[in-house]
Amino acid sequence: MTEPIDDAVPALLNAYRRDPQHYHELFDADGGVRARWRRMLAAIERADPAQMRARADLVERQIRENGVTYNVYADAKGTDRPWELDLLPQIIDAAEWQRLAAGVAQRAALLDAVLADLYGSQTLLAEGLLPPELIFGHENFLWPCRGGTPPGDTFLHIYAVDLARAPDGAWWVVADRTQAPSGLGYAIENRQIISRAYSDLFHDMRVQDLSGALRALQATLQSAAPVAAGETPLAVLLTPGRFNETYFEHVYLARALGVPLVEGYDLTVRADTVYMKTLGGLKRVHAILRRVDDDWCDPLELRGESALGVPGLAAAARAGRVLIANALGAGVLESPGLLGFFPKICERLRGEPLALPSVATWWCGEAPVREDALAELDRLVLKPASPSRRVEAVFGPSLPRSRLGELRARIEAEPAAWVAQELVDLSQAPVWQRNTTHAQIVPRAVSMRVFAVASGNGNYTVMPGALSRVATKAAARIVSMQRGGGSKDTWVLADGEAAVDTLRRRELRAADIVRRDDFLPSRLIENLFWLGRYSERGDDYTRLLRVVLSRYIDTSAATNSIAFEAALAACRRVHLIDGEAKPVRTALVDALTDAAAPYSLASVLSRLLWSAGQVRGRLSSENWRGLLEVQREAQSLDRERLDFGNALELLNRLLMEVSALSGFALDDMTRDDGWRFLMIGRRIERLQFLAEVLACALSHAPPPDAATLEWLLELADSTITYRMRYLSAPQLIPVLDLIVCDPANPHSLHFQVYELHKHLRRVDAAFGSSSAGEFELMRAQLDALDLSALETALFGEDGRHDAIVGIAALLADIATRARKASDAITFHHFTHVAAASRATLSA
């Protein structure tokens, strides 16, 4: 049964149905608006529909432009599924939050002490306060980690707890997150977006700041890291990679904390010491904030098939040579079966009652408890005691009587594998629901994930906010992001003025100034190199396809024209079109849309976005938004509905967006080694492509006519320069001078060779390579190129033909040498293969 809403509330709440069996965050038991919600509701009531639509649009736009994603496994939207953020925050008043924060801090300290005991003296097991089956039967109790003491004696550096509010308004712990807790970055991103949507109201309501949590985590990693005298601690964030559901958060946190984002491949262990592989060699790593699950962290001692971890990491942790946050093996405390044992453990270890109670929980491994649970299966939730049992939670109230019997038999067959929990009727929070015609506020189930960070001496700092999660369906009994749930910002109101961050920061002096980043992983540099190559390749292929399509559409340029045939030959030369067997239209459609073809535009753009995803932490938000625009255009390449006229317009838009990436590279990035290799990638790609196309055009029979020279100028983005200089139709000698020999033209071959020589001289000097010499030879060849040999009046038609053939051969040779130079750079700087081994690898 639902109760009506008070007539005094806004019409937006007409669809809100207040169920008395649930606690309502917005309304009290009498139907009145709770005090903490009155200012927010009044602001919504004052706002006109257009203003609220603008706020909702702002939230959606910020999520899209910031690239905030959450991958739901098996979801059709895949890794690009946008993060769901509700327009209305969850609001908690100061007094209630103080009680919650004290309980969370106490619980974090308790669990840290439990971990210390389990991997140390194991007193809790010896005294019977914890059942051995529940600990030793859990796959995240890691025997190789026993006996080691982590730096700073802290096992739990960041702790998260999932809370649910019962119908009486009390908060209960539903789950502890101790392994590699996720959500902190999303909570802070939610705050940045929602605070902008309600900028004045946010300030007037004195909402507490969240940024102190990141500074506390940063300080913890630095202060507890095991450093030798004179060393500056290096912390990294270890991610499983971009296909992880929370990869956005990994990038976000790495950038916010100012630490390198690394994968297992980027690290190596030598003599129980962890190092990061960089261009300049191995750099010691002192602290690892990990987002890789416990048993995947070390294929040597833990899960042997893991490609995500670092061989030898467990040994380094045991030796105390690296701080790992959280300590390996911390995931054992995520077993729901432990919740019922913590009250007595708190009395034993801390001499005080547990302030924040857990939802009623029964571990079925104890016979008397199991009998109580079996007697009430129809009102309980059944969960696996260990994640090794890949089974979903089973809701007793939803099962028919026959299925309850089957469940009872399964529990009795393996009692220690099951945990029974009371089913909490989650509190209902107001959610902004917008459809095509109007907006309304409706109730949805809500839970809250709260975070605490170790602050030394066994104490924890609780972030004054949370990641609130809401169900998308009205009757949902469980809230889960993997089930498609949404999120809310959480506003904790200050008692008086908003709390000020008082965390002490290390004072930086003139001697601490850094102008070179020596901690760039080789893999990151490699991906920047390929980002440069694929950015330029996307630009090149877009221009070439635009040349071909525009001439294909022009009925006055019949398909047998010299210029069109030369352009098609160039497409084949660079493998954009595969062979000559297909009809021209089919070949062009494939060149645009066939993602399975390695050199199609769709495939190149896919690789561009892949490379960009690998280096996202190094790109500005504006640069990333530019890449998202490229992605949207790439996704609109629909083979089934492709029209060449529309495709030409799409190529025009795409060219502007891909060209903008060059501007970001030139203007938006610090000139460090990462930027230098990105530019080397761009220059090599442009040199190789343009040399190939020019060689093809010059060797194509008959020799290039004015129409062919016109599209060559277009391809090299040099049409305007040519017209301003010569005021005539394109002719071979000045065209070749402009796009081959002119050192002032940023699209000429000479310019690419000069820039490559300049960049590689610095790389060679810094890293002991020898790549610049090849481009010095190319520059000498281009300087010596004598275009007067193309003058018919001096050398006749035969002499001119021989000169064209010679120039074509030189350009083809330059393209080949550029490709080999790229391979040499890759071998030397990214795969670290000696020159003597390259021939074997190539073979």
Number of helices: 27
Percentage of residues assigned to helices: 40-55%
SS-derived structural category: alpha+beta
Q: Kindly, what is the distance between the CA atoms of the first and last residues, rounded to a whole number of angstroms? A: 75 Å
List low-pLDDT spans: 4-9, 833-843
The main pleated sheet reads as: 6 strands, antiparallel
* Proportion of beta-strand residues: 5-15%
Question: What's the topology here?
Answer:
Elements: H1 38-46, H2 49-65, E1 90-92, H3 94-118, H4 123-126, H5 132-136, E2 158-165, E3 171-177, H6 184-197, H7 199-204, H8 212-224, E4 235-238, H9 247-257, E5 261-262, E6 267-270, E7 273-278, E8 281-284, E9 287-290, H10 313-318, E10 323-325, H11 342-350, E11 361-363, H12 367-375, E12 380-384, E13 394-395, H13 401-413, E14 418-422, E15 428-434, E16 439-456, E17 459-470, E18 486-488, E19 490-492, H14 522-553, H15 562-573, H16 584-593, H17 601-614, H18 621-635, H19 644-667, H20 673-699, H21 706-715, H22 719-726, H23 732-741, H24 749-767, H25 772-783, H26 792-831, H27 835-842
Parallel strand pairs: 1-19, 4-5, 4-9, 9-10
Antiparallel strand pairs: 2-3, 2-16, 6-7, 7-8, 11-14, 12-13, 12-14, 15-16, 16-17, 17-18
